[in-house]
Specification:
The protein is mostly helical. It has two domains: about 60 residues, no CATH class; about 70 residues, no CATH class. Helix content is about 40%, strand content about 5%. It has seven helices and three strands. Strands 1-3-2 form a three-stranded antiparallel β-sheet. A hairpin with a 2-residue loop joins strand 2 and strand 3. Helix 6 packs across helix 7.
């Protein structure tokens, strides 16, 4: 299996459900405000909650992201954390976390090795400017050191 085939999004919305916490950093907030045509203060009051110094999108009573309705209602402007799923740091560096994500995300190929997934994920995050180093308010799941990123990109995707 090639590294390029370890994950292909099926747009099923499984990742839009639950209380995991969708962090919306400054860049995300600007993008969402522009897309929604909302002033920042209005956006923050209507769609977010602050916890531990970070801004999170709220979830509805159904447990879905506030913008999820038969698909993502803000897909072109979705936060970086949403753009990055399932290529979160935990899934990239921990084979057990990766295996658990395979159970809930139908886009992760069941036969994909952790090395292939990590290599694809590192390349995907890097190409799209989604890697966060130490930005305040950024999602922890997107914080990868340059050394971690380089190691993943060098990994042999055929390693199981």
């Amino acid at each position: 299996m090639s590294a390029a085939s370890a994950f292909a999004c099926r747009r099923c919305g499984q990742c839009c459900r639950g209380e995991g916490g969708i962090v919306a950093d400054e860049r995300d907030q600007q993008r969402l405000c522009a897309y929604l045509g909302a002033a920042r203060e209005t956006f923050l009051a209507a769609y977010t909650v602050e916890r531990s110094g970070k801004v999170f999108l709220t979830v509805g009573a159904d447990g879905n992201c506030v913008f999820f309705e038969a698909g993502c209602g803000v897909h072109p402007a979705r936060p970086d954390i949403c753009r990055a799923w399932p290529f979160f740091r935990g899934n990239l560096i921990d084979a057990v976390s990766f295996a658990l994500s395979k159970d809930s995300c139908p886009g992760i190929e069941q036969g994909a090795s952790h090395a292939a997934f990590a290599r694809q994920g590192a390349a995907y995050l890097q190409a799209r400017g989604l890697v966060k180093s130490s930005q305040a308010g950024a999602a922890e799941a997107l914080k990868l050191s340059p050394a971690m990123l380089a190691a993943m990109l060098k990994a042999d995707p055929d390693d199981a």
